[in-house]
């Protein structure tokens, strides 16, 4: 094959993966997305004398740039610099993983079976990509079934990494099958055997999932929940609207739905922009107005997002995220916070802890601190937001219901969400502000990740999204009610507060931990084998 053919295959791989991605893609295509790349890798392997050792890095990078660009271009609406960096860096990380798979595969004697190294290395990458300064797991392969949750009810056992395993295994099986058919050197029995294997791997998980879906019965005590979607424009209104007007709009739109059975009112992320300081939170205008509202409805607990700040005490050492006042030598931390308010307890606080690299968190802050003002000019932030050390769970006034406030980007992380459940959450609340991305696939994809969290944890979800899609989701991942995009609204339903732990909640991303261990071990073996083989090829002195 000529270079143009290899580039065509690379672009084809990126297109297939993009066309398989939610919200409008069809996930069957994900089972073939890596097949063109595997043909490129196989061709370079068979003709290695004609290629540089970095050739596969070049071709795979093109594929992943196409995929990342076509599925996450909408970041552009929020930050141009962030969009460019997200596409270039995430594509590079993926290409490096594929390159390491290629180099390792060459070092193993049975190269036909060494192709399965791709599964181990890729899952290890997705797992490690969940928890570092440049974390961006939006395109973790298992997320691709977000719009087809009946297929993946078994995520309650594996999490989304189980979906990644399924996709990659089928890509390898279909690659082997197509290669045998095109090669015309294998007998019909071998081709039939490979076809049956691929068909079984494809259908058995789906059949198992449909059985789980059909037989699952929700459990737990019922609770009435209201969601408020005030639709305050984050670009033109959110930071300029008077406090009372924000409160009146956010609570007023939901008030007609409140009954004696209502226990929770869930409001969106960043709804309050009063600059609430922790040490005087109770005296803030927003909290006073909310408490005044609750005098009429003492049975209701309110969850609402805010920007809050903590002043450091005298002689208290500043944290890594601390900011200094311009005119005095004092420090403070800034937070993206969820407030939990009822008429009897002090205000509860939880600070967003999975921060978006760039807009909310300066990656590798100690190293890049001199560049933080440049990051601000290009769409980032000066410094980083503070976070909560624990996954806080709030208890209702009656004590029967225990809820977290999962803030925006945090809902993309399966095991992170499961931590709230391990801490006692029996319903999940997600609060977000998706208007930054305008009416693009960005807010739609973000919304569809929520049903995956419901399946993994078997927890009902109430999702309040200012300027996005608010919704109720049951324990099977069924979407019960939704609001329209960019329309002020309030919705109400009864959810069930489940207390049982799924296998995934108990064990987390165990597939990722196993693959990371195996990946490091096998990479060391491949490196050792490569050094030994290179020494054997050296001429004797």
What's this model, at a glance?
By secondary structure, this protein is an alpha/beta fold.
Name the CATH homologous superfamily of the largest domain. Carbon-nitrogen hydrolase
Oligomer: single chain
Do you know the CATH topology of the largest domain? Nitrilase/N-carbamoyl-D-aminoacid amidohydrolase
Computed structural class: alpha/beta
* Global mean pLDDT: 92
Number of strands: 15
Return Rg in Å: 25 Å
Straight-line N-to-C gap = 39 Å
CATH architecture of the largest domain: 4-Layer Sandwich
CATH top level label of the largest domain? Alpha Beta
Amount of beta strand: 15-25%
Percent helix range: 40-55%
Put simply, the count of helices is 17
Low-confidence stretches: 373-381
Largest sheet composition: 8 strands, mixed
Q: Tally the structural domains.
A: 2
Shape: globular
Description:
This protein has 541 residues and is α/β, with parallel strands linked by helices. The protein folds into 2 domains: 3-215 and 509-537; 221-353 and 388-505, Nitrilase/N-carbamoyl-D-aminoacid amidohydrolase. It has 17 helices and 15 strands. Strands 1, 2, 3, 4, 5, 6, 7 and 15 form an 8-stranded mixed beta sheet that branches. The protein has a 5-stranded mixed beta sheet with strand order 10-11-12-13-14. The model is unreliable at 373-381 (pLDDT under 50).
List the helices and strands and how they pair.
Elements: H1 3-19, H2 35-46, H3 55-72, H4 80-107, H5 111-114, H6 117-128, H7 155-158, H8 160-183, H9 188-215, E1 221-229, H10 243-252, E2 262-266, E3 272-277, H11 285-294, E4 301-311, E5 323-324, E6 331-341, E7 348-351, H12 365-368, H13 372-377, E8 394-395, E9 402-403, E10 405-407, H14 414-422, E11 428-433, H15 441-457, E12 461-466, E13 471-473, E14 479-482, E15 489-497, H16 503-507, H17 510-537
Parallel strand pairs: 1-2, 2-4, 3-4, 10-11, 11-12
Antiparallel strand pairs: 1-15, 4-6, 5-6, 6-7, 8-9, 12-13, 13-14
Helix pairs in contact: 1-2, 1-3, 2-3, 2-8, 3-4, 4-6, 4-17, 6-8, 6-17, 8-9, 10-11, 14-15
């Amino acid at each position: 094959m000529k270079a143009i053919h290899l580039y065509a295959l690379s672009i084809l791989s990126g297109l297939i993966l993009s066309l398989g991605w939610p919200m409008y893609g069809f996930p069957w295509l994900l089972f073939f997305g890596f097949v063109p790349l595997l043909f490129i890798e196989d061709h370079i392997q068979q003709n290695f004398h004609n290629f540089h050792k970095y050739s596969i890095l070049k071709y795979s990078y093109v594929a992943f740039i196409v995929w990342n660009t076509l599925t996450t271009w909408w970041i552009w609406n929020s930050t141009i610099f962030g969009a460019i960096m997200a596409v270039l860096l995430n594509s590079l990380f993926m290409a490096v993983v594929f390159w390491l798979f290629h180099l390792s595969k060459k070092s193993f004697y049975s190269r036909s079976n060494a192709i399965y190294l791709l599964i181990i290395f890729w899952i290890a990458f997705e797992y490690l990509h969940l928890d570092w300064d440049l974390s961006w797991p939006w395109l973790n392969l298992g997320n691709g079934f977000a719009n087809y949750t009946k297929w993946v009810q078994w995520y309650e056992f594996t999490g989304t990494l189980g979906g990644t395993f399924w996709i990659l295994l089928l890509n390898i099986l279909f690659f082997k099958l197509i290669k045998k058919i095109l090669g015309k050197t294998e007998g019909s029995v071998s081709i039939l055997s490979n076809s049956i294997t691929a068909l079984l791997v494809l259908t058995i998980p789906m059949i198992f999932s449909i059985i789980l879906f059909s037989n699952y019965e929700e459990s737990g005590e019922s609770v009435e929940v209201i969601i408020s979607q005030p639709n305050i424009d984050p670009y033109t209104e959110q930071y300029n609207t008077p406090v009372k007007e924000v409160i009146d709009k956010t609570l007023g739109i939901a008030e007609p739905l409140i009954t004696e059975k209502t226990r929770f009112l869930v409001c969106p992320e960043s709804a309050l922009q009063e600059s609430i300081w922790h040490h005087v939170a109770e005296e803030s205008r927003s909290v006073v107005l909310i408490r005044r509202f609750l005098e009429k409805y003492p049975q209701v607990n309110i969850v609402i997002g805010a920007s809050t700040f903590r002043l450091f005490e005298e002689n208290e050492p500043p944290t890594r995220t601390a900011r200094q006042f311009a005119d005095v030598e004092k420090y403070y931390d800034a937070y993206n916070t969820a407030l939990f308010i009822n008429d009897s307890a002090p205000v509860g606080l939880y600070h967003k802890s999975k921060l978006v690299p760039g807009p909310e968190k300066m990656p590798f802050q100690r190293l890049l601190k001199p560049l933080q003002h440049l990051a601000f000019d290009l769409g980032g932030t000066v410094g980083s937001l503070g976070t909560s050390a624990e996954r806080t769970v709030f208890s209702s006034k009656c004590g029967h219901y225990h809820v977290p406030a999962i803030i925006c980007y945090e809902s993309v992380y399966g095991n992170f969400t499961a931590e709230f459940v391990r801490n006692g959450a029996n319903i999940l609340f997600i609060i977000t502000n998706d208007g930054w991305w305008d009416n693009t696939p960005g807010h739609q994809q973000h919304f569809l990740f929520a049903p995956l969290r419901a399946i993994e944890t078997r927890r009902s979800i109430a999702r309040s999204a200012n300027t996005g899609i608010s919704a109720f989701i049951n324990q099977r991942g069924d979407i019960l009610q939704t609001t329209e995009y960019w329309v002020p609204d309030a919705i109400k339903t009864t959810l069930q507060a489940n207390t049982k732990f799924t296998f995934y909640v108990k064990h987390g991303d165990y597939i990722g931990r196993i693959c990371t261990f195996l990946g490091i071990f096998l990479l060391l073996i491949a490196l050792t084998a490569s050094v030994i083989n290179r020494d054997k090829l050296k001429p004797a002195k």
